[in-house]
Amino acid sequence: MKRLYFGLGIALVIFAIIFCGTKAVRGAEKDMKNEFFVLQKCVEKNDFESAEKLAEKAEKKWVIYEKNLSFFVNHAEVCEIGVTLSQLKPLIKARQKGDINAQIKKAQTLLLHLANIENITH
Amino acid sequence: MLISVTRTAVLYFVVIFCMRIMGKRQVGELQPSELVITILISELASIPMQDLNRPITSGVIAILTLVFLELVVSAITLKSQIFRKIFEGKSAIIIKNGEIDQKMMKKLRITIDDLLEGLRQAGNFSVDKVNYAIMETNGRISVQLKDDFDSVTKQDMNIKPKCEGISQVLIADGKIASDKVKCDAEEQLKKRGLEKSQIFLMTKNDLGEFYIVKKEK
């Protein structure tokens, strides 16, 4: 019986880790998805000044998310999104619309991949 | 490098904790499911230790899930005989009434060398003395000797057994083991004119007999 209580305790720990991990990943995905959407719109409208500010904001946000996410998902994948975001600002400054869009698309795909890892069907 | 040390330390404690929960058993006594889980746990623990890209939770959660499943399965097997058969298997008779069951040996895929080795490990060096040999679920062979070769017991000789019980340690390496035994220990020391610092080991059995080993000078 004592062992079963231990089992119950372990199950709770497992669920807590899964819950926290899923929440962290889903939260980051949702938030960053919005950021990318707004950023993409700015680039489409050729509003590069706002796009630059948004890119900087997204980069800072990601640094915070990175700390939490590294606890639950592969560091290399989290880091890759950070690198992709850091490349956005110089591209916006250079007004290279095609490259900016490609970079945003890459970040979106990586983010989606990160969220999909948490799916049971992955 | 510090992260490597931290991860190793965390996983060390997780693995020790899990092994303690799973119970005290030696490798040779593990049931098949327990053996599989023990190997898996060691493998899982080593991955986040070596690959720093992997989050530590991936290792911890996998280990905890295995331990949880092991606890659930052990609880079910305790209650259900069908589950016990599925997860632990059942023992098989290899030698019955002194005759080797060759069909069973083939079924269990054990050679005659394996059988002889198992018998030797059980303390029997000749097959002809064995009445029953049973292969247990953990792979060990239990042996019952034929009546002619079995040891004589005290009961056979009508000797009333003297039960010494378990020896309790009173003094170990010059130190009294606990407050409960302090009176007994000091009384004995006084009687024998000894100091506790002179004693390497002092024990007392259920019959009240003391056993003393003095420290070497």
Low-confidence stretches of chain A: none
- Share of residues in helices of chain A: over 70%
Biggest sheet of chain A: strands, sense, closure?
none
- By DSSP, the count of extended strands of chain A is 0
Q: Identify the CATH homologous superfamily of chain A.
A: IL-4 antagonist (De novo design) like domain
Structural class based on helices, strands and sheet pairing of chain A: mainly alpha
Proportion of strand residues of chain B: 15-25%
In one word, what is the shape of chain B?
A: flat
Distance between the termini of chain A: 36 Å
Could you give the order of the helices and strands of chain B? Answer: HHHHEEHHEEEEHEE
Low-confidence stretches of chain B: none
CATH class of chain A: Mainly Alpha
What layout of secondary structure does this protein have?
The complex is a heterodimer of chains A (122) and B (217).
Chain A: H1 2-44, H2 48-69, H3 75-93, H4 97-117
Helix pairs in contact in A: 1-2, 1-4, 2-3, 3-4
Chain B: H1 2-22, H2 32-50, H3 56-79, H4 81-88, E1 92-96, E2 99-100, H5 102-108, H6 112-121, E3 130-135, E4 141-145, E5 168-172, E6 175-176, H7 182-192, E7 199-204, E8 210-214
Helix pairs in contact in B: 1-2, 1-3, 2-3, 3-4
Provide structural commentary:
Chain A has 122 residues and is mainly α. Chain A has one domain: Four Helix Bundle (Hemerythrin (Met), subunit A) (Up-down Bundle), CATH 1.20.120.660. Chain A is built from four helices and no strands. Chain A has helices at 2-44, 48-69, 75-93, 97-117. In chain A, helix 1 runs antiparallel to helix 2 (48-69) and helix 1 runs antiparallel to helix 4 (97-117). Chain A is elongated, with a radius of gyration of 18 Å. With 217 residues, chain B is α+β, with helices and mostly antiparallel strands. Chain B has three domains: 2-86, no CATH class; 92-149, CRO Repressor (2-Layer Sandwich), CATH 3.30.240.20; 168-214, no CATH class. Chain B is 46% helix and 17% strand. Chain B contains seven helices and eight strands; from the N terminus they run ααααββααββββαββ. Chain B has helices at residues 2-22, 32-50, 56-79, 81-88, 102-108, 112-121, 182-192; strands at residues 92-96, 99-100, 130-135, 141-145, 168-172, 175-176, 199-204, 210-214. Chain B has a four-stranded antiparallel β-sheet with strand order 2-1-3-4. Chain B has a four-stranded antiparallel β-sheet with strand order 6-5-7-8, covered by helices on one side. In chain B, a hairpin with a 5-residue loop joins strand 7 (199-204) and strand 8. The longest helix of chain B has 24 residues, at 56-79. Chain B is flat, with a radius of gyration of 26 Å. Chain A binds chain B through residues 3-4, 6-7, 10-11, 13-14, 17-18, 21, 70-76, and chain B through 21, 23, 52-57, 60-61, 64-65, 67-68, 71-72, 74-75.
